[in-house]
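Design request, tokens follow.
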């Protein structure tokens, strides 16, 4: 049995533990190599789809991760205290996930912040948009309305997180260009407001990956570390997460930039196993919300795609996989990425 197969059995839960006990290899499970890199639940949104925060903490620990980024599955005080106690026992960190207060009544958001604090969260990760800018908005006016509403939601959240002393990290979630999000951070200028720096998302908005990382690193309160691969298609290019070290992101430089700018920020893996995403940057609809972008952004990105295609294989497709196959593939991609973070990035 290979080491990878052994780790797969360990992470399978009680059945895996019984297997190890029966084969006399339980000590190997305890010796799982550890990394300070954490896991976001979004790494498992294709097949595993974690629902219970405590169970996800245990699962992440079994894979050797140093922490988790997850929504709270319960706000019951006893549950929150149990989660915190186990997190501290394991020496792991916890970053909560919560939605911004979209309406004037921000009481639900405030309860989420309070619960995260009881659970021992270091930061709350959020996003202004759940989808993708070039898919969700059909005209410039709709985008401008979103901008106004998003800034208002941030303004409602900021007094709450300031009062609770709970940092709020807004992800660059294929909505804001790096410059746009950095401008929001400059305008608000609060120690309790920053970004969840996703290292790959802004390629979809035609931002050069390292330029986006350099722009947002000074505001990073949280991270989604990912590597990306690209491939041309008729209307633009395809974009896909790949295990760390297999894509086009300069991960060593990324780690250096974040460490220099924000030494205390956790590195959290987001390795989504899925079919490639279409970025239709050669269509008219794509451009309606980018009045200030010019052809240089397009030319630079298409050149990036072309150069990457010469070095990389075709992007992975997973649509043909069974659920059991997807479960295994998700875990293999995450395990390989955690190993890379520990062995190659010193995380």
């Amino acid at each position: 049995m290979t080491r990878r197969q052994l780790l797969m059995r360990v992470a399978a839960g009680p059945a895996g533990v019984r297997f190890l006990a029966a084969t006399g290899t339980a000590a190997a499970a305890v010796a799982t190599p550890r990394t300070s890199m954490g896991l976001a639940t979004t790494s498992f949104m294709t097949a595993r789809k974690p629902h219970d925060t405590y169970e996800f903490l245990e699962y992440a620990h079994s894979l050797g991760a140093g922490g988790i980024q997850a929504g709270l599955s319960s706000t019951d005080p006893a549950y929150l205290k149990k989660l915190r106690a186990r997190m501290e026992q394991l020496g792991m960190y916890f970053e909560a996930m919560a939605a911004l207060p979209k309406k004037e009544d921000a009481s639900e958001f405030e309860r989420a912040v309070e619960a995260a604090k009881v659970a021992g969260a270091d930061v709350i990760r959020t996003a202004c948009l759940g989808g993708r800018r070039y898919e969700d908005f059909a005209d410039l006016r709709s985008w401008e309305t979103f901008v106004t509403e998003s800034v208002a939601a941030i303004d409602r959240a900021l007094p709450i997180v300031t009062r609770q002393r709970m940092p709020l990290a807004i992800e660059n979630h294929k909505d804001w260009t790096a410059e746009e999000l950095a401008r929001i951070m400059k305008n608000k200028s609060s120690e309790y407001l920053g970004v969840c720096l996703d290292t790959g998302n802004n390629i979809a908005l035609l931002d050069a990956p390292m330029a986006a990382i350099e722009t947002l690193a000074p505001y990073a309160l949280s991270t989604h570390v990912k590597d990306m691969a690209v491939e041309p298609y008729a209307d633009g290019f395809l974009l896909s997460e790949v295990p760390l070290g297999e894509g086009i992101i300069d991960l060593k430089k990324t780690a250096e930039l974040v460490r220099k700018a924000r030494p205390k920020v956790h590195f959290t893996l987001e390795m989504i196993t899925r079919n490639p995403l279409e970025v239709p940057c050669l269509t008219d609809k794509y451009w309606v919300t980018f009045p200030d972008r010019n052809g240089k952004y397009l030319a630079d990105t298409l050149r990036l795609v072309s150069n990457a295609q010469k070095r990389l294989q075709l992007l992975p497709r997973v649509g043909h996989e069974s659920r059991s196959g997807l479960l295994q593939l998700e875990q293999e991609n995450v395990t390989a990425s955690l190993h890379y973070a520990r062995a190659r990035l010193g995380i």
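Comment from the thread starter after seeing the answer: thanks! The chain has two domains: 1-32, 34-229+239-277+320-344.
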